Structure formats: structure tokens, C-alpha cells
UniProtKB/TrEMBL annotation:
InterPro entries on file: CHP02001
Signal peptide bounds: 1-29
Matching NCBIfam families: gcw_chp (TIGR02001)
Lineage: Bacteria, Pseudomonadati, Pseudomonadota, Gammaproteobacteria, Alteromonadales
Protein's organism: Shewanella piezotolerans (strain WP3 / JCM 13877)
Name recorded for this polypeptide: Uncharacterized protein
Domain of life: Bacteria
Record's keyword terms, sorted: Signal
Length: 240
């Protein structure tokens, strides 16, 4: 399960658009949420729970004018910090263009926080996403990764193809690069996954194989919290 719960039209940006959202009529607003569980919380190929289960959830507030606000949370397990929970706060704008509005996009700012510890690893990240048909392309960037004053880029491409009714094959590839990647891993690296997903009784289910191409010198032993070995990732979520 990725840090975003793969909601196609979730977008996040703060500033003047946030002020606009707060004064827009409530009649045009809609609240939604999602709760889920996964056998391992992987973020860009790296476990945030030492390979253990995670319970995750989000609450979103969306406007007809394309503005979104929300919060996402998950348990984490990091021996180097005191935090047991990650809480991400985001806000943004999404829209569409083209003759039939077949192209969709979003602009994002996300603030990663870890209640229970100091601000040593909290940081802000921006992204731009583009959607067309079954494809999703996104570019993420922060100039202060993990509050360490280093830049990190992440480019990802996702594809979902419906093989038959209510069943899809899902593919993902992402690439982390810049000083932030060197800061954490000593090199730029790719993460990738392929799997299937469906929905039964209102519950979204997915099963995927996930791995990275980190070199053997930089692969963390599977006993460490930040493990990045190949794994089968299973998740279930319910939207409300």
C-alpha cells in the first residue's frame, strides 16, 4: 500500500488555494475516508514497519472547484526514532483538460510528520501528477528531505489494466534520485511492483510483488527496520 491510497483525484497544495477552500460554501463540499490494512508498509520500496503489518487510514475533504484537503496516517516502526505513528497532512488542487477532459492532473504539497519525536525528520514535499486512461505519471520533489537540507526527486509511472470485470493487473515503477537518495542509500535506485487488484463487497483487495534494484552494498539486512528486500505485498481497504 503506497503512502497515498491511490485515489485518482486526490491532490494537495497549500497557500491561497487553502484559503479559498475554507471560505467556499459547505454545500459544495464532500467528506470521504478510507481505512485499510497491509502486511508491510512500503514507501518507495522500503519498509516503514520492519516488515510487519500496518493499519492505515485517511480522511479527505473535497470541493467541486477541485480543491482537496486531507490527512493520512499509519503505524511505523523505526528503531532510530521514538515515533510509532506517521501522520501526513496534504492539500491541493485537481483538474482536467482536453476535448472530453480525458486528461486529468493534480498539484500536491504533503507534509510528513511523526508525532512523538522532534522535528528532525519532518519535511514538505511537492508533486505534480498527470492521468490519462489507465496511466498515471507523477513527479515528486523536496529540497529538505528528512529535514536534512538535501534535495530528493522521485519519478513514478503507474499502469492498471482491467483483465476482466472488477479485476485489474497493476504495474508500478519509481525512481529515487538526488542528494537525498545518496543521503539515505548511497545511490539512486528504482522500486517496482506488479500485482492484481479487485473489489469484493465494497472492500478493495490487492496482491503484488515489490522489489528494488539497490546494489548489494546498500541492501539492508532483513532483520533491520528499514528492510528493502523483495516481498509479496497484500492489502485490503474500505472506502466510506
Amino acid at each position: 500500500m503506497y503512502k497515498k491510497l491511490n485515489k485518482k483525484r486526490i491532490a494537495q497544495v497549500v497557500g491561497l488555494t487553502l484559503s479559498t477552500a475554507l471560505i467556499a460554501p459547505l454545500a459544495q463540499a464532500e467528506f470521504s475516508g478510507e481505512i485499510g490494512v497491509t502486511n508491510d508498509y512500503r514507501f518507495r520500496g522500503v519498509s516503514q514497519t520492519a516488515g510487519d503489518f500496518a493499519v492505515q487510514g485517511s480522511v479527505d475533504y473535497s470541493m467541486e472547484n477541485g480543491i482537496f484537503l486531507g490527512v493520512w496516517a499509519s503505524n511505523v516502526d523505526d528503531a532510530s526514532y521514538d515515533a510509532d505513528v506517521e501522520v501526513d497532512i496534504y492539500a491541493g488542487y485537481a483538474g482536467a483538460f482536453g476535448a472530453d477532459e480525458e486528461w486529468e492532473y493534480d498539484v500536491t504539497l504533503t507534509y510528513y510528520t511523526y508525532p512523538g519525536q522532534d522535528e528532525s525528520s519532518q519535511y514538505l514535499e511537492a508533486s505534480v501528477g498527470l492521468y490519462y486512461g489507465d496511466f498515471h505519471l507523477a513527479q515528486w520533489y523536496t529540497n529538505d528531505y528528512s529535514n536534512a537540507d538535501v534535495a530528493l526527486n522521485y519519478t513514478e509511472l503507474n499502469y492498471s489494466y482491467e483483465i476482466f470485470e472488477n479485476w485489474s493487473i497493476d504495474a508500478h515503477v519509481g525512481y529515487s534520485y538526488g542528494d537525498g537518495a545518496d543521503y539515505d542509500w548511497g545511490e539512486d535506485y528504482a522500486d517496482y511492483s506488479i500485482g492484481v487488484s479487485t473489489e469484493l463487497g465494497g472492500v478493495a483487495l490487492s496482491l503484488a510483488w515489490l522489489d528494488t534494484n539497490l546494489s548489494s552494498d546498500n541492501i539492508i539486512d532483513s532483520s533491520e527496520p528499514w528492510r528493502n528486500d523483495g516481498t509479496v505485498l497484500a492489502s485490503a481497504s474500505y472506502a466510506f
